[in-house]
Design goal:
The structure holds two protein chains of two kinds.
Chain A lengths: L4 E3 L2 E5 L4 E6 L6 E7 L6 E6 L5 E4 L2 E5 L5 E6 L8 E11 L2 E6 L3 E6 L1
Chain B lengths: L3 E4 L2 E4 L5 E7 L5 E8 L3 E10 L2 E4 L6 E3 L9 E3 L8 E8 L7 E2 L3 E5 L1
The chains are: A mainly beta, B mainly beta.
């Protein structure tokens, strides 16, 4: 089945550093979503992107909808220990009259105090 | 609002046993879905429902059944559990397909 490729798969960073991760696909999507999953919890939506080229911020988080509509990027500035978790991208596209969602494989972030 | 609730939180089964994972939401969402999460595989869609009485298969439906008799509830049934079904299962809901999904806390299932 369709999967989105996320990179990196995991990363260890020092507190205060900036973080970048991305999501790529061979398919075109009309919406990109970024979720964060805390350990032992379900994913929670961070940012939603609806237009190609769109750049949206949510506090220290900034995400972009790639102009090709096949990729998206998430940046976290000045990381803090509570940023630890797994970050998932999700792409939405029309399929058979419905909006189908596909999740990425996740980026596991560890922040060293 | 309780949001999306799932029970049980943990479950251990023997191969061949059956069980039902419960999911309920109190947000009057039309769309509900079940995912499984495995290491390195992200979230994979098992089954989904666009409203009461309507269900459809997702990416990995084999070995699972669902029904949607009410807007609030969307149980996932394992008729004959297999070790390959060891995973963490998440239920999610949204106002409609394609909008922000709200996830439950998950059920961690181990099949021996």
């Amino acid at each position: 089945g369709q999967q989105l490729n996320q990179s990196p798969q995991s990363m260890f960073i020092q507190e205060g550093e900036d973080v970048s991760m991305n999501c790529t696909s061979s398919s075109i999507f009309n919406t990109w979503l970024w979720y964060k999953q805390d350990p032992g919890e379900g994913p929670v939506l961070l940012i939603a992107l609806y237009k190609a080229g769109e750049l949206t911020s949510n506090g220290r988080l900034t995400a972009q909808f790639g102009i090709t509509r096949k990729d998206s990027f998430l940046n976290i500035s000045a990381s803090i220990p509570s940023d630890v978790g797994i970050y998932f991208c999700a792409g939405l596209r029309n399929s058979g009259g419905y909006q189908k969602v596909t999740f990425g494989t996740g980026t596991k972030l560890q922040v060293i105090p | 609002n309780a949001g999306v609730t799932q029970t049980p939180k943990f479950q251990v089964l023997k191969t061949g046993q059956s069980m039902t994972l419960q999911c309920a939401q109190d947000m009057n969402h039309e769309y509900m879905s079940w995912y499984r999460q495995d290491p390195g595989m992200g979230l994979r869609l098992i089954h989904y429902s666009v409203g009461a009485g309507i269900t459809d298969q997702g990416e990995v439906p084999n070995g699972y059944n669902v029904s949607r008799s009410t807007t609030e509830d969307f149980p996932l049934r394992l008729l004959s559990a297999a070790p390959s079904q060891t995973s963490v299962y998440f239920c999610a809901s949204s106002y409609s397909m394609g909008l922000e999904q709200f996830f439950g806390p998950g059920t961690r299932l181990t099949v021996l």
